[in-house]
Amino acid sequence: MAVAELNVLLAQGVAVEPHRPWPRRRVSGEGWALAVEQLARGACTLVSLWGDTAEVHLALLDERTGNLVVLSHDVDGGRFPSVARAFPPAARLERTVHDLFGFVAEGAADKRPWLDHGRWGLSAPLGARLPVSPDAPTAYSFLPAEGESLHQIPVGPVHAGIIEPGHFRFTANGETVVRLEERLGYTHKGTEAIMRGADLAHAAQLAGRVSGDSTVAYALAFARAVEAAAGVEVPPRAVWLRALLAELERVANHVGDIGAICNDAAFSMLHAHCAMLREEVLRASGDCFGHRLMMDRIAPGGVTVDLDARGTERLGSLVRLLRRRFPPLVELFDNSASLKDRAVGTGILKAELARRFGCGGFVGRASGRNFDARRSPAYPPYDQLSFHVPVLEAGDVNARVWVRAQEVEQSVNLIEQVLAGLPGGETRVAVPPLPAEGAALVEGFRGDVFVWVRVSSAGTVERCHLRDPSWFQWPLLEAVIEGNIVADFPLCNKSFNCSYSGHDL
Hints:
Largest sheet: 5 strands, mixed
Number of strands: 18
Helix content: 40-55%
Number of helices: 17
Shape: globular
Distance between the termini: 30 Å
């Protein structure tokens, strides 16, 4: 989107103040339609779509400038103009707005429930809270696939091993997948409902539990949104410590997932070595910050833990260990013909789909989408650190592994830079209870995490929306498996490693 086009959108509505660091505008049907048209022709990227008491909100990003805008449209008679009618990537978000608030997207092609499985005992829990008959049907209508010699393979929601629940409905011709359709929402926790009325400290804890493997990313996004709303500047030491926590989380997840991908290709030795290396990262994190996953270590105003000299030395040893032990594992992956045979050319995500869905993280970057929230819109201290964002074009399982491997190397470099340049001083400041709204976009290990929050004059959360990168990755997993064999689904699935819990809210 050109700057002039963004200004056209901003000129459409009435400014909502205070809303920081990006503007929010209440727009008419004409302004909403213009935004949908911009999305449909690829002039901007969908960040999120969510409901509110009497509005729906649409967050859009200009990737070239890093500018972001939130547009709001009144819900007239419980209805609003569908975004998915012209821009299908918004479909699941629209269906979720209906499930949680009861608002109907006029013109939408797919009106099936998404998170609501008919087992809550009520409908529209964030809206009208209408009772539901215990005899109401709960069957889900999967999309049909027609053709000769087709058969269906249902998988889940209960899976072997320790894994979250999700249902996958395969339609196949022999071993070749013709269609995959997902059914998610089994881990719905009502997080956004629980956040209503919570004080900032409790809300920060809830945000950190949206997806346990991204607890740092979520806590950071929530904290930055609250700080933006309140106009609070975080102490430099806390800012750098946050980056340290985030990069440790990225390394732990990437290393562990590279091994898991190898395991799904029956290369258990690499899986074992990667698991041991991930354990080293988790132990170091626990030793230095008191929690292996670093949960509750970021809060509005700063961090809840500091790093002493002993911790600095501990992390320095971890950096040396990673530099010594990780490159040989990558070399082993690259030189193993059986692994390459399974990974190269499998589960190809086309660049156009990655761009259209605003697919973030290593999934998008392995398909040519050159986007990283640390670089744009950007946030400190990454503007003072040197790092490279790896981008590949192949879009297959192999490319997703290689982007992860290169990101591990970059994160190790960033950890070393933070340890060398960590400033002194305070680690937290108070956040005043100001009635305001704020938003933040933070780069987690899966991709960009978006948080929007409205804070009351009492310092409690009136409304908070949290959007996981998996929202725009799960649909693409359906696309990449088409034409592949059923046996390659675990490999494709793990190469994405979307979050069930993060998606289900």
